[in-house]
Amino acid sequence: MNWTVYLSGEIHTDWRQQIIAGAERENLPVSFTSAVTDHDASDAAGDVLGAESNNYWRDTKSSRVNQIRTKTLIENSDLVVVRFGDKYKQWNAAFDAGYCAALNIPYITLHNDDIIHPLKEVDGSAMAWAQTPEQVVEILKYVTRE
Asked: Structural domains in the chain?
C-alpha cells in the first residue's frame, strides 16, 4: 500500500522537508501533499475573483479558494501530520485537525511541549503527539511496514 500523508500547519520552518527527506531515506511507501506554503500566494488565492477594498472579503475569498485544495487533499489522505510552530498561532492547523477528527482520518500532532495545554483537545483526538520530524518518520516507518 502506498500511503498519502497530508502535511498541515506552520510554513516558516523546514519540518516538511525533514519528514519528506526522512521518508525517502527509509524508502517508505509514502506520498506527501500539503497546502500552498507560499504565504503571499496563499493570501492572494482569491484575488482572481476580483479586487476587494476590505481585507475581510479578500481573506474570505482566499480562504475559500484555499479550502478547495485543503479539503480535497485531507479527504484523500490516509494520515495527516499537523504542525504547530512557535512563532505564530496556526488557527488553520487546528481547523485541519478538527476536520480530520470529524472525518475519522487519523492525524499526528507535531509541536513542542510548551504548548501542550492550549492544544489539549487537538492532541486528545490525535493518534500520536510527536515533538520532532524524526519521530514522525519513525511512526511512518512503523505504520507502513509490511
From this structure: 3-143 (3.40.50.450)
